[in-house]
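Quick start: what a row looks like.
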Amino acid sequence: MSSVPVTTWSLEQTSPADLLPAAAPEGEVRVVRAEVPSPEFSRFLYASVGGDIRWTDRLGWTYARWQEHLERPGVETWVAYDRGTPAGYVELDPQDEGVVEIVYFGLVPAFRGRRIGGHLLSCGAARAWDLAERWPGRTPTKRVWLHTCSKDGEFAMDNYQRRGFKLFDTKVELEPEVAAPGPWPGAHPA
């Protein structure tokens, strides 16, 4: 199996004032929290958003592993809907000492390029900043961070920086080259 160099950039916000919200897209786009932990729905979002950009780390998770992850206090999934259809999502994962990671963020390919991503990221970052308000006993958020890599969409880094995220680390590592799995085995995403 061949390897390819992959650059990973880590970005952060250290104050809610860092967030530079995008304008809401035209049309009926809503961002709603998926409050009921659902392995089926979360795996659907993960595979549908990441299938063409080689998200593979969670494809082998069992149902029980998904359930365990989603039931962790403070883990939240926020879903963008365009006229009732899931268009993308943001997954928040609280860490120690008031840190919240945006672990996954992205759009289903058919919804990219329609100004939904900036709006969804704005909503997700805002929800990371006020996460402790929904989870009694959590330390208020002091830092929101995420990472993106050279395998992600071509506009990812620009979107993060336009929302006020600042670069704090860059790494280049060799990774095994894998085929884009698509949203399900054998699929060929458009």
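That is the whole record. The chain has a mean pLDDT of 93. The longest helix spans residues 116-129.
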